[in-house]
Amino acid sequence: MVLIIFSINIVYVTFFTLRMILTLKGFRYIAAMISAVEVIIYIVGLGLVLDNLNEIQNLIAYALGYGTGVIIGMKIEEKMALGYIMVNVITTNVDTDLPTVLRNEGYGVTDWIAHGLDGNRVALQILTPRKYELKLYAKLKEIDPKVFIIAYEPKSIHGGFWVKSVRKGKLFS
Q: How much is the pTM?
């Protein structure tokens, strides 16, 4: 019984986590389908626990399954890597060819000269699908180990050559 409750809760919370992420990313119909399955799993799992409420090991299995499900759901979402990431980069190397290198690899890059505490810098704004995020960080650190990086997820994207390439499926190919 403990193993069944643990397993059911892992599946339930994994579905719950994925549904929340898909909802936030705008995949509402897929999220709705997942929620239909999720609620059935939830009712079955909770029913098993409530029917045997006097057995502490069932509550512990429920709680551990819940925590494990969150971790598994997050790992799955990391692998799915839905959406895009906007990366702001600042490098002290003003003579860098970093923007050109990144553009040649398919990234959307806007660059300009910025002014920092100790002098001029090159600032870049880079847009990339999330699935290429770690590859981008590795490239940036390879070119400039002291690079300053801030990343966030843009809510909406409109215009520019890069968006057209994404829609045509020609990016990074």
A: 0.66
